[in-house]
Amino acid sequence: MSKKQKYYVVWVGLKPGIYTNWNECRKQIEGFPDAKFKSFEDRELAELAYGDEYKNYYNSGPKVQKVKQQAPENTLKAIAVDAACSGNPGKMEYRGVYIETKEEIFKSKVYESGTNNIGEFLAIVHALAWQAQRNMNFPVYSDSKIAISWVKAGKSRTKHTVNAKNKELFELLERAENWLKNNRITVPVLKWDTRNWGEIVADYQRK
Predict the structure, then answer these.
(1) 65 and 40 in contact (C-beta within 8 Å)?
(2) Residue from 79, 66, 178, 194 nearest 134 by CA
(3) What's the CA gap between 95 and 106, in Å, rounded?
(4) What's the pLDDT score for residue 5?
(5) Kindly report the CA angle at 68 between 63 and 73, in degrees rounded to 5?
(6) What is the pTM of this model?
(7) Residue 62's pLDDT is what?
(8) What is the C-alpha to C-alpha distance for residues 83 and 203, in angstroms, rounded to an integer?
(9) pLDDT: is 2 or 37 the higher one?
(10) How far apart are CA 83 and CA 87, in angstroms?
(11) Torsion angles phi and psi, residue 182, rounded to 5
(12) Cis geometry, peptide bond prior to residue 89 (ω within 30 degrees of 0)
């Protein structure tokens, strides 16, 4: 029987963050003065804790619960996008979903040697171009601050490099950047509030 996935929050350590295995967590806290960390059995609770103060979790169970608040009504007439990547880099894909009906309106192929940030970026640009072709004007929601910032900058800022496996993916990335260069964005590109609304509608449910 496989062990249940744990998430390790490091508030104070060599590199604060959320880690998915103990060995990586240990590297951040061993020998670090007054390190502060705690394990959780739920990713969302770990994210909530990381955004909170360590004192609320020391020698106690988490004092927060999952928020199951429904997304506001004004998010329904919109498109949600998300990406999935098996490894980093790894096999990557992305898709777009109409929020109100949960209908998948576009889906990419699976690309080799991609990253989640690249996928999130491509998903947003795809949603913008898809709408432009159809004279549609729905807001686009993404749960990636990084991808949204890339779109607003008009260019990917990935540090991942092209190789024999991902040449096709980088060609697509270049086309996406050219589309942003040559087209004016006329719809809002917004951050999905995962903390309060739960996982984005387009989520691949692979966590």
Answers:
(1) no
(2) 79
(3) 6
(4) 82
(5) 140
(6) 0.68
(7) 43
(8) 8
(9) 37
(10) 12
(11) -105, 0
(12) yes
pLDDT given at position 191: 94
Q: Are 51 and 195 in contact (CB under 8 A)?
A: yes
Tens-digit pLDDT profile for residues 148-184: 999 999 999 999 999 999 999 999 999 999 999 999 9
pLDDT value of position 41: 82
Residue 25 · residue 5 · CB < 8 Å: no
CA–CA gap between residue 140 and residue 128 (Å, rounded): 8
Distance CA 184, CA 39 (A): 45
- Tell me the C-alpha to C-alpha distance, in Å, between residue 11 and each of 20, 66, 111, 146: 15, 20, 35, 22
- Dihedrals phi, psi of 50, to nearest 5 degrees: -60, -30
Owner of token pair 């990636």: 144
Percent of the residues in the chain that have a pLDDT greater than 90, as a whole number: 62
